[in-house]
Specification:
The protein is of the alpha+beta class. Helices cover 27% and strands 20% of the residues. The chain contains ten helices and 16 strands. The strands form three sheets. It has an eight-stranded antiparallel beta sheet. Strand 7 and strand 8 form a beta hairpin. Helix 3 packs across helix 10. The longest helix has 21 residues.
Length: 411
């Protein structure tokens, strides 16, 4: 079993495909060759989409036999309804955005998060459906159908670091997450909690290092403190602790902290009664902004400073979702056939989920929560300069998520 799902490298030469060539030649060929990767019209309600790229326009639709297809239209044309109905959405892209979309550098969610998704009308869901089609034929991945993914493990099982590493790896690879009990002590977590309180005056709205939320009483509260190790000797020590480093070894893929030199750990408050701002994050994958094929699977690690349960801000995950091509965020989980698992944790427990496992943070209703988040990336491949340049393209959207959208990038 490998959790290294990368299929692209940043330093690999790639030829830009002009939209005319892509929609006129490349896409029709891919759709014919990989029709089996796309569910039928009965299984997948794929409504028409109008896509405009720098002065040219195409209508993406199902043709007479139900197969996905693309046809050019006039850029200023009114798009009339056809047998498969009117378009559900229209999107305008620059040539650079279009190229990044094809190359998996960004997703529609990534554009939306960055505030650069030009969608004059329609809902994002119609765009994401066609994004699935593109990813299916470009990446040779089958769009998820009911019954595709089996999760034959006890999803309520909790491990310790002393359990059989083979069993932990097998569980993580099957379910996309693992719950580790008692990794850190209550005394250590009490020290972290005290440091969180002491660190609050070091953060302020708009500082680029914190997220803030408005509570029902009108007060503003910091809900996420980035680069928190700068304000906590205890947390700085935890980042180098053999117990945490053993978590990186679970996947046996050489996961490293190399990626985290700037923002190594974040301390989160989960208050009750948030009315605006991002505190409790809806369903998403950590690769929802893009670059799944360059970076997945990373390990996202949550350290429970306080306990968490149904009324105190627990994490929920969709087991097996890392093995399914589906929307990367904003998901209607009721339509999925995969298990929704709540991870109730005690003080000092650690949760680990893969970067392409769907998860969300449940809003606390009775007891606030405190948690640390850190993580590990796969070892780098290829040229550092190319990789860094492409990551910088997403940096603005990752840092700007609390200001620009209700859909954040991770955790």
């Amino acid at each position: 079993m490998t959790l290294d799902l990368r299929t692209r490298r940043d330093d690999e030469a790639r030829e830009r495909i002009a939209p005319d060539s892509f929609f006129g030649e490349t896409l029709p060929s891919l759709l014919r060759a990989h029709a089996d990767l796309i569910p039928s019209a009965d299984e997948f309600d794929l409504r028409p989409l109008v896509l405009r790229v720098d002065g040219r326009a195409w209508r993406l639709h199902r043709d007479g036999d139900g197969s996905p297809a693309a046809m050019p239209i006039g850029d200023d044309d009114t798009v009339a309804a056809t047998a498969d109905g009117p378009p559900v959405a229209e999107v305008r892209l620059t040539a650079e955005q279009f190229d990044d979309l094809l190359a998996d550098q960004v997703t529609p969610i990534g554009l939306m998060t960055a505030g650069t998704l030009d969608q004059p009308h329609g809902r994002i869901g119609g765009v994401l459906d066609w994004w699935l089609v593109l990813r299916a034929v470009l990446d040779r991945r089958r769009i998820h159908r009911r019954g595709d993914v089996d999760v034959p493990v006890d999803l309520g099982r909790r491990f310790t670091l002393d359990d059989d590493p083979d069993e932990i790896l097998a569980f993580l690879g099957t379910a996309g997450f693992v719950h580790l009990r008692g990794v850190f002590t209550a005394a250590e977590m009490a020290g972290v909690s005290d440091d969180m309180d002491r660190a609050v005056p070091n953060y302020m709205p708009g500082d680029g290092d914190s997220w803030w939320a408005t509570l029902a009483d009108g007060s503003e509260q910091v809900v996420r403190m980035q680069r928190f190790e700068r304000h906590s000797a205890t947390v700085s020590s935890i980042l180098e602790d053999p117990r945490l480093l053993r978590v990186a070894e679970i996947a046996r893929c050489g996961h490293t902290t190399e990626w985290a030199t700037d923002n190594r750990v974040e301390a989160l408050f989960k208050p009750i009664g948030v009315v605006s701002g991002i505190s409790d994050i809806p369903w998403h994958k950590d690769c929802s902004l893009g670059r799944h094929s360059y970076e997945c699977c990373g390990l996202t690690v949550g350290v429970s400073v306080t306990g968490a349960g149904p009324t105190s801000g627990q994490l929920r995950v969709i087991a097996g979702s890392h093995r399914a091509l589906l929307w990367p965020a904003l998901l209607d989980t009721g339509a999925l056939d995969l298990p929704d698992v709540a991870l109730a944790t005690d003080v000092g427990d650690v949760t680990v989920h893969l970067s392409c496992t769907l998860h969300m943070a449940q809003a606390p209703t009775e007891t606030p929560r405190r948690v640390l988040y850190t993580g590990f990336r796969l070892p780098p491949t290829g040229d550092d300069e190319s990789r860094s340049a492409n990551r910088r393209k997403l940096k603005a959207s990752r840092e700007g998520a609390p200001r620009n959208t209700s859909q954040p990038p991770a955790r």
